[in-house]
């Protein structure tokens, strides 16, 4: 039996109110140890307030050939971006 | 013994424990079984060295002889060290290292929990910071002891051997003497003996989960925290740790 | 450099695909693990990132050699934190290599049985405390020369690992210079240690960049793929130009009698290291090759029961949980 510890993907929320962000990976025998290892490996400089771990082989990823259909439709919806709208200066910050 | 003399002794006991254990744990750097453990052990050692700077810094201040934490760490001889014997025994294998860490962390966290309420605000402040670190150390060492105790046949055997070897060194952490009596009187620190019950409960719960058997004998080695008789290992540790300071007196590093 | 003499693999792929791949790289796009890539690109990267990772891990040893002898509590903490960072950097790099379809254990085994190399510099001993200064100042200084441009490398996971590494490493070189400066300004014995460290580590540091690569076809392919960003000679010259004034500031003498500023070139002229020594070290005959590999093998062999034990427990726990559901 192969005895390498599984690979885990690590997501850390650096500040309150922010999203978790992928910071890297590591090996651990199980999820609990993966969280502890993530604390030791990825928050050595106080980078995190919350840690998520996901076993790497449980992640489903889009394949690169899907890139067009998945992302291009949103590129045309420029109105989703705040800078699309001109707001008169007199109106103030918005 | 005056109150300040006792207080200094107490601070040396705290600081020498973290100094010597931090030194031992740092010996693993670059040699651990897996990268993640290498990094975790270094974090533990770093916390312990940081705590040493605070405890020995306060001890030096109290002595009032113009010494620094470094002077105390690097220029005292073995008989002036006040750490328990448990922390000076060699690392041996990863199992003994983690078992030693667990047996120490369990005491350390309980002790620091009491010191947070110390009548001396400086002690309380150090304990406040150190107890957060110790809580994580304990979580990690307890989990590892459980994993390895309840792992493979070999890991179980090695952890039981580690426990059998180290258990006689655990008792010293709970021996009280006149220094402790002074500290209790001044409300600075608890009576070590009073921590035993909570310790035993915690340690048996974890070791039980680890499927390990606590040796029946309550025999306890002693002599470290009083300085009366250290193990032979401490001298060797000091020859490394203190070498530069001893060989080049007065140099600034 | 931490990755030396990486031979890039020849690649035999569909020319059309290759051209499209090269166009993406030329346009500054990042290649991600699931993207199509030439087999040669993948294999070269595994070798390069793997060697880089191994260098970090073996690189823990020469500095780890002084952790228990650090002269003050603060120096001990700083050195330990730095060597710990190297373990972290090795870990990030192994993970980047793993996205290319190789496991960390496979890479580790190739290091341990000598199929893969690590940087020549870590086969030199650290003999006095000033070496902790010289390693940070010279060795990390040389490494940074290479790692900063590598943040822009074409392979996404490698680039991200380098960004994180560079961010963390910014203190390493400074702490090294700080250590050696204290020594250079200290007692006569300390000054002697500082000069001794520079004498021993100067040429091995220059060797880190690898032999002159102006005629190397491998180098050209790797540079086209943006997994090598500068030539060895460019970086070596930059390192010399940067380091000589720093040595002068310390009052230390670079052990090269022919070293002099060349007004016309705008660079220092310097003596090349003894390349036969370099090849000896690469072949396994450096002063510490045997000890370094033995130390890594011992850690791996002694650690087996721990890795197996913790995994066995995790499996038992999962099985118990499964049974209870």
TrEMBL record, chain A:
Q: Which gene encodes it?
A: paaB
Q: Which NCBIfam families match?
A: PA_CoA_Oxy2
Instruction: Output this protein's name.
Output: 1,2-phenylacetyl-CoA epoxidase subunit B
Classification via Pfam families: PaaB (PF06243)
Which species? Leisingera daeponensis
Q: Look up the domain of life of the source.
A: Bacteria
InterPro entries per UniProt: PaaB, PaaB_sf
High-level lineage: Bacteria, Pseudomonadati, Pseudomonadota, Alphaproteobacteria, Rhodobacterales
Automatic annotation (TrEMBL), chain B:
InterPro entries (UniProt xref): Aromatic_CoA_ox/epox, Ferritin-like, Ferritin-like_SF, PaaA_PaaC, PaaC
**KW Ribosomal protein (keyword) present:** no
Presence of the UniProt keyword Nucleus in the record: no
EC number annotated for this UniProt entry: 1.14.13.149
Which UniProt keywords are given for this protein, alphabetically ordered?
Oxidoreductase
Q: What is the source species? A: Leisingera daeponensis
Domain of life here?
A: Bacteria
UniProt-listed Gene3D superfamilies: 1.20.1260.10
SUPFAM superfamilies referenced in this protein's UniProt entry, alphabetically: Ferritin-like
**Pfam families, sorted:** PaaA_PaaC
- Identification of the protein by name: Phenylacetate-CoA oxygenase subunit PaaC
EC class (word): oxidoreductase
From TrEMBL, chain C:
UniProt enzyme class: oxidoreductase
Listed GO molecular functions? phenylacetyl-CoA 1,2-epoxidase activity
What is the official name of this protein in its record?
1,2-phenylacetyl-CoA epoxidase subunit A
Which keywords, in A-to-Z order, does the entry hold?
Oxidoreductase
The record's EC number reads 1.14.13.149
SUPFAM superfamilies for this protein: Ferritin-like
* Keyword field contains Oxidoreductase: yes
